[in-house]
Design brief:
With 94 residues, this protein is mostly helical. It contains 4 helices and 2 strands; from the N terminus they run ααααββ.
């Protein structure tokens, strides 16, 4: 089982990845693969934690998952996404 910090990282990363890959489950697969390669941990343990998140195991990660879904829906409607927390605001256009 992965740590709660890693579970939160999956949710946060999926939120950002959703802008490129579309809504769950695509963004979660991409976030899982990226975290797996960055931290050299098994994809199975990440996927197990993601399942716990989807089942309500982590309120923080679940909140990020919902935000990521909303942003992905906005992206698909053609609104683009602005990353305001970046040092230079970035606007992604689809």
């Amino acid at each position: 089982m992965t740590s709660p910090v890693l579970a939160e990282a999956i949710g946060v990363l999926a939120h950002d990845v959703a802008a490129v890959t579309g809504p769950p489950p695509n963004c979660h697969r991409a976030a899982t693969a990226l975290l797996s390669s960055l931290y050299n941990i098994s994809i199975d343990s990440i996927e197990e934690r993601e399942q716990n998140i989807r089942d309500g195991g982590s309120a923080v990660a679940a909140r990020w998952q919902r935000v990521g879904s909303a942003m992905a829906a906005r992206w698909q409607r053609g609104g683009g996404i602005i990353y305001r927390n970046a040092k230079v605001p970035i606007k992604l256009e689809n």
